[in-house]
């Protein structure tokens, strides 16, 4: 059953594997595009742990820097996770129909497909979440030393894949404490938690730095986000049939009921905690990527609830209804590109412009990277490292989609007031050079960025043209100094 689910997952994911990278994936490409020594600090600049990027770096040394090669680790993780869900479902219930339903829901879910075809860490985090909960359940039943060791290993590995998983791991520890049936298991948990913390504490300064920048995420993560409430409403809807059925049938506390409480707690407690920290301003965590571990467990929660329904006909009806609901609310509308940021097409078009233009031409890029605000007011402690941050701001055009060599300079722009000339541009740019301006955004956004730039440089006059080749969410413009434009007019 797990193999069949994995094959279905591959079929549904493969059409999106070769589309243009979007800006987050371009950060991955930039991190791994040079030597291994560059990986840790480039990952940290994007507030990421380096473990995943080291995996991708090693892989791309063998395969080269391509869309498919950057995404393949995620594809393997996403397919493996879907197969694991089906295999665990069959192991827990010995019911092929329950396993098939859980596997189908996992294989066709739009978030699962997205993360499995994205050159980011989240598909691997999904695998770790499933393994963590499986180990936790085995420990609650048997309290074996090897399972505790493996739980520590997987928890630490998950943390070093993505720091946000620490929320999931803390909640899992709380659920083990709540469901342990003797003090000995709780003592073993304390020892395991201590071992894990010894391996995590070494990066506390990094976490402290990220926490100080938490206001960055508060700009786009809110407790009232319509996207997030829609995500959870649609993702949890498939559980409704079995919530009703278990309410009809469950009358006593059993091992299966305890398992359902464990899985249910690991779905809802992290989500509720993230919502609370976001609503109170402590840390903006109510965001699908940061809660992907909990979302991954929804099919397993369905399995746990199905195991509590003894009547086979009712259980089969619930499975059919759950799959229909999931298909209607969570399946993608089509198979293929999912990101909508076609940097590949725009950089190819801009490359042709640069190659055909004999004049030295500057390139400005407004990549929409929130960390680039540092370019406007760099703190004194980072002045020696500003060349690295300037490279970070230009990352979409300096790795897999690098522009050709040409006479001219490249400049990054800030996230806030996008388009406004940075101190570096004012200091180092030359007024007589044409400009290629690349913008992450729609046509109105690109036009506003251009206007912001013109307003910030009132001493320079440009004629702005919009090349024919444009895409929906990545645009570009050519700015020609007015005196040069006058010379080219017939």
TrEMBL record:
Topology within the bilayer: Multi-pass membrane protein
Cellular component GO terms held in the UniProt record: plasma membrane
InterPro entries: LipidA_mod_glycosyltrf_83, RgtA/B/C-like
Keywords: Cell membrane, Glycosyltransferase, Membrane, Transferase, Transmembrane, Transmembrane helix
GO biological process, one term: lipopolysaccharide biosynthetic process
Main location: membrane
Cellular localization per UniProt: Cell membrane
Keyword Membrane: yes
Transmembrane segments: 72-90, 96-114, 121-140, 160-180, 189-211, 231-250, 262-292
GO terms, molecular function: pentosyltransferase activity
Residue ranges of every copy of the Glycosyltransferase RgtA/B/C/D-like domain listed in the record: 51-207
Pfam families in the record: PMT_2
Entry protein name: Glycosyltransferase RgtA/B/C/D-like domain-containing protein
